[in-house]
Amino acid sequence: MEQQPTCRAHMKSLGIIVVIPTYNNAGTIASVIADVKHYAEDILVVNDGSTDSTQQILASIEGIRIYHYAENRGKGHALKCGLKEAYALGFRYAITIDSDGQHYADDLPRFVERIAEKPDSLLIGARNLTAENMPSKNTFANRFSNFWYRVETGIRLTDTQSGYRLYPLAKLQNLRLITSRYEFEVEIIVRAAWRGVPVENIPIKVYYPPEGERVSHFRPLQDFTRISILNTFLVLIAFLCYYPWRFLRSLTRENIRNFFDKQLIHTADSNLRMAAAMGWGVFCGIIPLWGYQMIFAALSAHFLRLNKIVAVVFSNVSIPPMIPIILFGSLWLGARLFGEEMLLSIDQITFEAVADSLKHYLVGSCALASVAGLVVAVAGWIVMLVCRRKPITE
């Protein structure tokens, strides 16, 4: 671990500023700043409309920058302002630390050492969730958040809710973030991962005072509801846009060759089961489960004992270029099955027509999925018979 003077110099050379958002933490803000000053020369405190004596305390402390606005806007807004101001001041990184005293300033060198090894990453302090006085609701909320973060990004983290973080400022510019309160810290790490910024945990200590001394502005019902709504939105975006986009980017000649070699040619599954996995993947990709088709493909393939990777890959038939064809084919086939006319003209849209079109789509998409899945399964079986080597046996 770096010594204090060395850490200050290292932070200066790397372009790191410490950002401390605060709201009505008059009892702890001065000691937090004093501790941080041992390790960092550049400190920016964002006063999120405090109504206690926080503003007067900050005015009495020398050697810090203060960003203040009169009305409380939420932690997310304070972080947005702090990160924007830090970037405008020319810093490359910002380390955020809470002002309630739960974080230890002597963990700052951990962030500095790791970012020197892996530049332009986003680092999140991983707390010991078995620490003394750790509220049980925090442990549940963190596990909940970790699960959805992995669903949304494919990245496994042990702590996604810690406010002790290092942000690579240039990499996060022009992100159109929609949140302004506690859920901001969830949204920004998801959006950063989607942009290709490496996100990882580093171990930190944490202090939680006894319940009677604890100061928290987290509103369990309101804030947990907002986080849940955000996760629902992010999951839909992930499966409608992010994962298909990532799949398309992965379609290089080498990756395609490796996939065919490992998953189709050299596998212990029989030709019939491989063909079934292909057809089942296509079926899952067309049925009306928008946003959850890959999840359904993976789970159902597991229970059907089919090759999950093959099923998930073939479920990507619903990538954006194919969506108009699938929608049109579903509506056309559904209308034919009901012996009715397909609605296409905008001047024909009524509540009854929309209901009929939904009926056409739901029935037609299931029918199209069944036909397409069967065709792909038969075609895959024939191709496997002609091209594939004998399946591997133990």
Q: What's the count of strands?
A: 7
Biggest sheet overview: 7 strands, mixed
Query: Low-confidence spans: pLDDT under 50, at least 5 residues?
Result: none
Which outline best applies?
elongated
Q: What does the average pLDDT come to?
A: 84
State the share of residues found in helices, binned by percent.
40-55%
State Rg. Answer: 27 Å
Element-level helix/strand string: HEHEHEHEHEHEHEHHHHHHH
Question: What's the number of helices?
Answer: 14
How far is it from the N-terminal to the C-terminal residue, by CA? 51 Å
Helix vs. strand class? alpha/beta
> What spatial order of strands do you see in the largest sheet?
3-2-1-4-6-5-7
User: Into which percentage range does the β-strand content fall?
Assistant: 5-15%
Please give a structural write-up.
It contains 14 helices and 7 strands. Helix content is 54%, strand content 9%. Strand 2, helix 3 and strand 3 form a beta-alpha-beta unit. The longest helix is centred in the C-terminal third of the chain and has 37 residues. The mean pLDDT is 84. The protein has a 7-stranded mixed β-sheet, with helices on both faces. It is elongated and about 80 Å long. The chain is α/β, with parallel strands linked by helices.
